[in-house]
Structures are given as C-alpha cells and as structure tokens.
Design brief:
Structural class of chain B: alpha+beta
CATH class of the largest domain in chain B: Alpha Beta
Number of strands of chain A: 5
Helix content of chain A: 40-55%
Largest interface: A-B, 48 and 61 residues
CATH architecture of the largest domain in chain B: 2-Layer Sandwich
Largest sheet of chain A: 3 strands, parallel
Radius of gyration of chain A: 12 Å
Helix content of chain B: 40-55%
Strand order of the largest sheet of chain A: 1-3-5
Oligomer: heterodimer
Number of helices of chain A: 5
Number of strands of chain B: 22
Number of domains of chain B: 5
Radius of gyration of chain B: 35 Å
C-alpha cells in the first residue's frame, strides 16, 4: 500500500505538529512526499522530515521526496541535510 | 490569539522600539555624533527588523530593509563617507522603512513607487559608481520577489554583488581540497550551533541563521541528528538537531557573532578558528542514508560563476553556489564514533562565548490592564490604611503606643508601595517624542520650510494615562510652530537668520507637573494681524483694548486662524483651540509667550498622573469636598470691609488692589439656597485654566491630602461642577471640585432647581 503527503507552502513552527502527525498516521506504508509547493522550510519541520526518513528506513519501506521546489532543495542544502533527504539526481542539480 | 500571532505582535512592538532607536541614532548622526557606536546601533536596528521580518516572511519589508542595511554596512565600514546629505537620505529611508513596518502590520499601505525609488537611491549611495541602470533591478525588486521562492534567498543573491563576494572557482573544482588548504587557516571558522527549543518558539529559525552566515562567505553546514528521537517520540516544537558549520570568511569572529545577535541565549554557540576536527564534521553523516556523491556536484557548480553576474544574481542559482562549492568536504567518509559529535571542542581551540545581555537590559512586557488593576488595588489600600488610622485615632490610643507606631510604619510602607506602583506605569515621554522628528520633516517638506527639531528631556517620566494623551497636543503645536511660526528660508535669510529654523521640543518636571515646551525661532506672533483677524471674525469687539498677552491668547479662541491660505498642514482654524480643550480636559493649562522677530514658546503644563491628586479637603454645607491644590493660589479669612456687593446677589472680594468674584460653592452646587455671610467661612483664592481668578467660599478647611481619583463618569454619570470623586479616610465619598466648571457655572448664574441635588453618599 502506498500513500502520499503534500507538503504545505510554509513549514514552520505551526506546521511541525501536523506534519509529524501526518507521518505517524502513514507509518508502514510506502510514501511519497510532494515538496513542490514548499517555499519555506524551518528547522522543526526539518527534524520531522529527518525522523520520518529514518523511521521509513527502519521499516524498510520506500520514502521519496518528489518534485521538490527550488526553495526546498536550497534550504535542505543550507541545513546540510541533502544527503538524508534529497535523491541523488537532485543533490547534484544546482539549480 | 494563536501563538505565532502573539509572537508577531511582540515583533511589531520591538519594531517600534527599533525604529525609534534607528531614528534616534540617525538624528544623533545629523547632529554630528557619527561615531562608530551610533552607526553600529543604527545598523543593528535595521538588521534586527530585517531578521524578524524574514522570520515572518514579510517580503517587501525584508527587501527594503536589506538595501537599507547594505548602505549602513558600507557606512560603518567606512567604505563611504558620512555626509549630511547621506544622513538626510537615511532619515527619509527610515520613514519608508517605518511605512513598510506599518504595512506589514496591516496598518496602511506602502507606496511601492516611493519605496522602489528610495531603494534605488540607497543603492546608488552604497555604490556611487554603479550606473543608474544597475540600480533598476533593485527598484523593481518587489515585483520579482514574488517569483523568487524565498525572499531571503533572492536577497542573498544580491548580497553577493553588493558586498563583492566572489565565488572562487578553485574551491569547486576537483582540486577543492587542495584549494581549501590554500585558504588561510585564519579565514576558516567552525561554528557549532545548538539551537534550543526557545529559538523556534520565538519564531527564530536556524535556516535564517545559516543564510545570514552564508552572507559572510561560503559555508558548509553539517547537521547532527544523533539526538533526534524516533518519529513517534519527537516533540514537534523541540530542538534536537545541531549543526556544525564551516564558514570561510575574512570578516572575523565579530561578524559571525553578529549573525547570532538575535538568538542570544536561545542557541548555544561555539565559534572556533580553523577546521573542526574531522570526526566532528563527519559524525553527523553517520545516520545519513545516502552520502552525497561529491563528484556530481562539481561539474554543475563550476558553471555558477558564469550564471551569477552581478545584475542577474537572481534566485537560487547564485544561492546554491556557496553551498554546492565546498561539497567535497562532506564527501563520504568512514564512520566515526557518534560520541565525537558531542565531544567538547579541543582545548586548543578557543571557544567563543556570545555576550549575554546583563540583567539590566531585560524587560518584562506586562498587560497594562494588570498594572491598572494593581494601581486600583493600591489606591484601595491607601484608603483602607487611612480609615484604619482614623479609627485608631478615634479610640484615643497614645501616639507612642506600639499600635500607633505600627500604623505609622504601615502608612510609610503604603506610600512607598503607591509610589513604586505609580512608577511602574510612568513612562518616559520619549515614546511620544520619537514620532515627532518625522512629523517635523514632513511638515517642513509640505510647507517648503527648513526646520530642525531639537528635543530635550525625552526621558522625563509621566504616568501612562497622561502620556497617551500628549501626542495630539504636541503634534498640533509642532505643526503650528512650523507652519505659522517659522518663516520661509528666503524670509529668514532676509532677516539675517539661519535659513533653517529651529523648533525645540522639551519636557521637564516642574513643581509636581510635567511641562512641555514647544519653542520656535520664527517671526513671533504678529499681534496687529491677530487682533484685526479676531475683530474681523467677530471674536472680540473692535474697541476692546487688549494687552500683548491677551492678544497672544486670542489664537486659542475657537474658529481663529491666521494662515493666509488654508494649507494641508494647519490653518483650518481647528488647531489651537482643540489643543487647549484637550489640554484642559487633562487638567492642564497652556500658555504662549511671543517675542516679535524672535519666535514663540508654547508652554503646556499637565499633572504627572491622572490617578492621584493633591487636594484641599473642605467642608461645604455639611458635605466634604476636595479642591485640587494646583488651582489654589491662597486661602484667607475675609474681613467684612473687603467684601463688596455687586448686582442683586453677587459680591466681590478685594484682594490686594483687585476684585475677584466671590463664589459660594454650596450655592453653586445647590447644597443650600442661601449663602451664609462669607466672613464666617474660609475663602480659597483659585485660578482657572484661563488665568481668571475667583474666590471660592467654603465653611471650613480640613487640610491638605493626597486622594485617589475615582471617575464619576465611569461609576455614575457626569455631574457639572464635579471633576471626579474619591473615598476619604473615614470611608465617606468626597467629590472633587472642577474649579473651572464652578467658575463658569457662577458666570451663567445658578443652575435651574430641577438639577439633581448632589449628596455625597456614605
């Protein structure tokens, strides 16, 4: 079974709780995270994403972030989290 | 209110303070105090606004603040010289910034054309060599911001050309490691950032800190998520992840520290010179599933310098460069023990601690209602204490007894508490004064005059109740001083004066009142004209001979205006009489002195607080009344020969060569139908707000006392002749006399019998 989460535009303090909830509810399923809308990504939501990524890795279920927006990619890089959250082809693409 | 909104409110409050600091600093610079500290303070103010605005995504505000900040940065690093013209430009820019803040707050809109033009001007001032064309993209900035994914990102793209950062191609070739080694060790810093949960709670953001860091030079952040709990156990609002950032910058430790200025205390910070120990850098890679394939980053990154010429430095391309560049550093590496990440920095590296603000700087924000409630309660306490003292007195307890002495101590304490509580609510008039420089600039612009505002005594403290109502009168008086007081630059030159007029706004304490003075060095009041206008408008009769002072005071008459034409600024004839009325409503008085050719001075005197009042407690027809002490000139027992009848019922009292009307308070307030002979009572000589004197007749004086004002309007209804009420020591309600109203009531004759009779109730 597979599922998807569409990330909202702003991933700030307010978004981190609901984001965690969304991941917890979908635990155990293949997941696709749509990051095309993201304009802002904060440290708290980054933590949730990292934790979710790890959880899915533990479960051995596929976890993919699709069509990340430029802002998303850029911020992930800024955070030094590209290794964990971006796929290889996106990691390399600078723009 | 949701939490973020609450933080936003705090941000805007801070913005107000920052804008005030900004303006204060710029004005100091205008006065020639452009030492490094002032410039730095000004820079920090703009920087702080930008930082906060970024956190809330207030994009136009961030954009403008950024351009502004860049110029200030150039100024403080002495890249450009400080000139009066530049300071004037900065002041105007601060006005636009204030508009942006208001707009972000939802109060008013920003004229984008003005903002863009100002941004362009700032840009040119930053780099005089830049052709106007180069400034154009900045002017259009607000449009393209929408297209950019993140405003700060776009911002930083601009930084790179603003600040002359170059991405050195050598750091992104495959020789990266070698090139890195070539960079002087002194230019490489390792910043270890451990955000606390509070940082996020206060709407700060690590991403912003990292972005700010990347302005200093190429950075490479390595995150450590070893403390991150499993998904189910994660607290969405707690900080777990920490970062170690390699920064390559020539700007030194100070610049790095400044980035973290706003998160002081909310973020553990260590700044170390040189590379972090490899283990430290790599520890966090442990949990990362897919290590970054460095070689892939290189070819793409190489193209970046070509993609980022100064003007086209838009968007993430330029942004990504510094990040993509040092990627080889984070290349896959053998696992290092996870403990290393948490290990303290090597002893050799000097940890840099951030300065924590001292306790003196900490400020508590309190809901004003709570303070009002406290003041109310303390008022009750004072009354209660007075009642207790009176009861004890009634029992005839010796003053030397323990009980009486204990009561004395209680009284002292109560007074002290009252003073301290009042001090909590006291605020410096600065909060009102700080809005005035802008007003002066705008009014001067509108009227084509040159005016400089000099302020004095901004730190004079007044009760909050008064301060809130000071703004309007001061605004009116300043407008009036510039519009009517100051001459045009040409006239001033012709009169041998400096073309720039000086308007002085001062606040001072004088005998328990606050005095506000607005002084201009203009032409002074043209008394002939004032007199003729007053006659023409039918305000005074033409054959009336008036003293100079009386003529000056004509401008306070309703419907009086001397301006030749009605301007936008003033001259609608609603100016000074409105000021006078609002000042009187506060229990204050206003006066004017003027010297032809030298200017005029308006003096406003107000009580320091509207919560307590010094009054004379008197007895009238069996009722206890309080007469404000500020109105009383003297008290005396009249002799029969000093009283002269006037008209059928009235009489006047001779006091030192002049006659003042005698007013029986009991009769005026309808306590009694017929007044006893004044010689049996006490006469209080009072002065009304307009300077007119009257002699109030009371039966006896009980003494002078400080009373807590209880509004009659709030608790009952407005009563003519009575300003408010208070509760005395014996628990009785006493009315506080409105002296002006009593004088006016007397002039109009006794009120009709249908008026409600006032009885001070138990």
């Amino acid at each position: 079974m597979s599922t998807a989460i569409a990330l909202p535009e702003t991933l700030d303090l307010k978004a981190s709780g609901p984001l965690k909830q969304a991941f917890v509810e979908r635990r155990g399923q293949d997941i696709e995270v749509h990051a095309d809308q993201v304009r802002r990504l904060g440290g708290l939501c980054l933590q949730v994403l990292l934790a979710a990524r790890k959880a899915w890795a533990e479960d051995g279920k596929p976890f993919s972030i699709t069509a990340p927006s430029e802002a998303f990619v850029e911020t992930i890089r800024l955070f030094g989290a590209e290794g964990a959250l971006l796929q290889a082809e996106i990691q390399g693409a600078a723009s | 209110m949701d939490e973020l909104e609450a933080i936003k409110v705090t941000f805007f409050q801070e913005c107000e303070e920052l804008l005030a600091d900004l303006e204060g600093g710029l004005l100091a610079m205008q006065d020639g105090n452009d030492d490094g500290d002032t410039v730095n303070a000004v820079f920090r103010a703009v920087h702080s606004i930008k930082g906060g605005a970024g956190a809330f995504g207030l994009e136009p505000l961030v954009r403008f603040a950024h351009v502004f900040e860049t110029l200030l940065d150039a100024l403080r690093s002495n890249e450009i010289p400080g000139t009066p013209d530049l300071t004037a430009l900065l002041l105007r820019a601060s006005d636009v910034l204030a508009d942006h803040v208001s707009a972000a707050r939802g109060l008013g809109v920003v004229d984008m054309d003005v903002s863009a033009a100002m941004a362009a001007e700032l840009k040119i001032a930053t780099d005089p060599n830049a052709a106007p064309a180069a400034a154009a993209p900045v002017a259009e900035a607000p449009q393209y911001v929408d297209a950019a994914p993140i405003v700060i990102g776009a911002d930083d793209g601009m930084d790179d050309d603003d600040l002359g950062f170059d991405f050195q191609p050598m750091t992104i070739t495959l020789d990266a490691q070698a090139a890195d080694a070539a960079v002087l060790d002194g230019d490489v810093w390792t910043v270890s950032i451990r955000p606390k949960s509070d940082l996020y709670r206060k709407a700060n953001e690590t991403a912003l800190l990292l972005r700010e860091l990347s302005r200093l030079g190429p950075i490479q952040a390595t995150l450590d998520d070893s403390a991150l709990p499993a998904l189910e156990f994660i607290d969405p609002e707690a900080a777990y992840v920490t970062w170690s950032v390699r920064v390559e910058t020539e700007q030194g430790e100070e610049a790095i520290r400044e980035v973290f200025e706003f998160v002081d205390g909310d973020c553990d910070l260590e700044i170390t010179r040189g590379e972090a120990p490899v283990a430290d850098v790599l520890a966090s890679l442990l949990d990362i599933a897919a290590p970054a394939p460095a070689p892939e980053a290189a070819p793409v990154a190489v193209e970046i310098p070509a993609e980022a010429p100064p003007v086209s430095a838009v968007g993430p391309a330029a942004e990504a460069a510094p990040l993509a560049a040092p990627m080889p550093v984070s290349a896959p590496a053998p696992a290092a023990p996870p403990v290393a990440a948490n290990a303290p920095a090597p002893a050799a590296a000097k940890p840099a601690q951030i300065d924590v603000p001292g306790p003196g700087q900490s400020v508590i924000r309190v809901d004003p209602e709570r303070i009002d409630r406290l003041i109310d309660l303390v008022g009750e306490l004072v009354i209660n204490q007075a009642m207790l003292a009176q009861r004890v007195g009634e029992y005839g307890i010796a003053p030397s007894s323990n009980l009486a002495m204990g009561l004395d101590e209680l009284e002292q304490l109560t007074r002290e508490i009252q003073d301290s509580v009042m001090a909590i609510r006291a605020q410096p008039v600065k909060s009102v004064f700080q809005r005035m420089p802008r007003l002066v600039r705008e009014v001067a612009n509108m009227t084509g005059k040159q005016a400089r505002l000099v302020m004095d005594g901004e730190n004079t403290e007044v009760d909050k109740t008064v301060i809130e109502r000071l703004s309007d009168p001061i605004t009116h008086m300043l407008r009036n001083a510039i519009d009517h007081g100051l001459e045009s630059p040409e006239e001033r030159k012709a009169a041998g004066k400096n073309p720039e007029g000086v308007v002085r706004l001062a606040a001072l304490h004088r005998s328990g009142r606050i005095v506000i003075e607005v002084q201009d060095d203009g032409k002074g009041i043209n008394r002939e004209r004032v007199h003729s206008i007053a006659v023409k408008k039918g305000l005074i009769s033409p054959d009336l001979t008036l003293t100079d002072e009386e003529i000056d005071n004509l401008i306070f008459l309703p419907g009086f205006s001397t301006a030749d034409k009605i301007s936008d600024v003033s001259g609608r004839g609603v100016g000074m009489d409105v000021v006078k009325r609002s000042v009187q409503a506060l229990g204050g008085r206003i006066s004017i002195t003027s010297r032809p050719g030298l200017g005029s001075t308006f003096t406003l005197s107000l009580p320091l607080t509207l919560a307590v009042l010094d009054g004379m407690v008197v007895d009238v027809a069996g009722e206890t009344l309080v007469i404000p002490l500020a109105c009383i000139v003297e008290s005396l027992r009249p002799k029969a020969e000093e009283i002269r009848p006037l008209g059928p019922v009235g009489s006047v009292l001779a006091v030192r060569d002049s006659f003042v009307p005698l007013i029986d308070v009991g009769l005026t307030l309808n306590y009694r139908d017929r007044s006893p002979p004044p010689t049996e009572g006490v006469v209080l000589l009072v002065e009304g707000e307009d300077g007119s004197r009257a002699a109030l007749v009371a039966d006896a004086i009980h003494g002078q006392r400080q009373v807590v004002i209880k509004s009659l309007e709030q608790n009952y209804q407005q009563v003519e002749g009575v300003a408010a009420a208070t509760i005395l020591g014996d628990g009785r309600v006493a009315l506080i006399l409105d002296v002006d109203a009593v004088i006016n009531l007397r002039r109009r004759g006794p009120p009709p019998p249908s008026d409600p009779t006032l009885i001070a109730a138990e």
